[in-house]
Amino acid sequence: MNKSPSENFGRVTSHERADWIPFTLDVGATPGFTAPVLNRFREETEAEHPEEYFDYDFRTASLATRFGGDDPAALHAAVEPGTVFDEWGIGHWAGGAAGTYERTFPPLANAAGASEIEAFPTPIIDSGSTSKTVEAHHSRGYPVFGYTGSIYEWSWWLRGMQQFMTDLLAFPELAETVIRKVTGYTRTLALESARAGIDVLCFYDDAGMQTGLQIDPGLWRRFIKPRWREVLDAVRSQYPNRIFFLHSCGKIDDIVPDIVELGFHILHPVQPECMDFRKMRRAYGRDIVLCATISAQNLLPFGTPDDIRRWVRATKQVCAEDNCALLCPSNLIQPETPWENIVAFAEEARGASGCNG
After folding, report:
1. Closest Cα partner for 353 from 125, 114, 22?
2. How far is CA 293 from CA 12, 86, 171, 199, 280, in A?
3. Cβ neighbours for 179, distance < 8 A, ≥ 6 positions apart
4. Residue 241 — left, alpha, or beta (φ > 0 → left; ψ -120 to 50 → alpha)?
5. Would you call 179 helix, strand, or coil by DSSP?
6. pTM higher than 0.90, yes or no?
């Protein structure tokens, strides 16, 4: 086949018939291999870069960000040893487990008023040489995915889920202040990422549990949906060709029509434990590209290589009419996942396309 991955991906996002279903082991712009799996990859292959070894259809490049204050640990009265801090100063603790996080420490949990929230340091963005990295990937014919933030998820991480949910009902002005602050940063990060040439802006905003939404859909539509519109409209006005990818785990059926209406182009993961990919594709497949995700919770770690191959073949058949889907894991590949299963997924997904070597 003569098409490049970029050209084929363009047909997917335009809802035209693509020559093959694009494949990756990443989760949007986030590396799909947890640290133990990446170590196993290096041991097995003596290679450094999974995207090159398995020949993904995409490459990634994200802007560097960092905490905007002095010492994020000083924001917390106490944290567990081994806690790491993100660009918002939110603490993440793995509890000694590899490849996961068990607990978060919200830096604004005790904020008493809007002025304290407004004064909280906004993360700093460093564009660095990202544009050169993007240009290098483009020169090889790959579309580039980049991490561009969150709204709902970051908001409750900053306040703590219980306090944030209380704010939505009892102190809506405080909730709005947090959401507005997060939205401003996400908008800036998305615009800077688009300016660096990143094709696919990857937003992460888990709104679901496996039994339903975490947040009442009415509250989501009141507080969160307008802010997503603000971010996407800001990018569209300056960079109309950028693609919007949304990762939102769980059973989010209730707000999928809203996600489509907002203009997201790709939805990940359509979580196999609680959502029906076939049903979703019938309902929304002409409006949004749905990720055909193999379960990182069940099938990938606990199935056999033959199970994996059968799943890939069956899923490709579901999408055979137009190939407008993305084949990828539903979430990060966990340490207990057998190496043979990863290879089976990659070989079946890539081999069936017959496109990249």
Report:
1. 22
2. 16, 27, 38, 21, 13
3. 151, 152, 155, 223, 224, 227
4. alpha
5. helix
6. yes
CB 322 within 8 A of CB 15: yes
Q: Which two tokens stand for residue 175?
A: 């909730």
Following DSSP, what letter does each residue of 297-318 receive, concatenated?
TTHHHHS-HHHHHHHHHHHHHH
Residue 220 CB-half CA count within 13 A? 18
pLDDT at 100: 78
Q: Which two tokens stand for residue 268?
A: 């990940």
Neighbouring residues of 19: CB distance < 8 A, sequence distance ≥ 6: 1, 3, 8, 11, 323, 353, 355
**112 vs 287: CA distance, rounded Å:** 43
CA distances, 47 to each of 10, 54, 65, 333, 350 (Å):
29, 10, 28, 18, 18
CA atoms of 117 and 297, how far apart (whole Å): 36
Intervals of the chain under pLDDT 50: 352-357
Q: Which residue has the tokens 């494949």?
A: 23
Domain count, the chain: 1
- Please state, in angstroms and rounded to a whole number, the distance separating the CA atoms of residues 51 and 56: 5
Give the pLDDT confidence score for residue 127 in this predicted structure: 87
CA neighbor of 61 nearest in space, from 165, 140, 176: 140
- Concatenating the DSSP letter of every residue in 141-175 gives T--EEEE---SHHHHHHHH-HHHHHHHHHH-HHHH
**pLDDT for the residue numbered 353:** 42
Q: Look up the CATH number of the domain holding residue 196.
A: 3.20.20.210
Q: What is the DSSP letter of 80?
A: -
Q: 262 phi and psi, to 5 degrees?
A: -65, -25
List the domain range (segments joined by +) for residue 109.
Answer: 5-353
Listed in sequence order, the residues at least 6 apart from 163 whose beta carbon sits closer than 8 Å to its beta carbon are: 106, 109
* Closest by CA position to 321, among listed 281, 284, 293, 294: 281
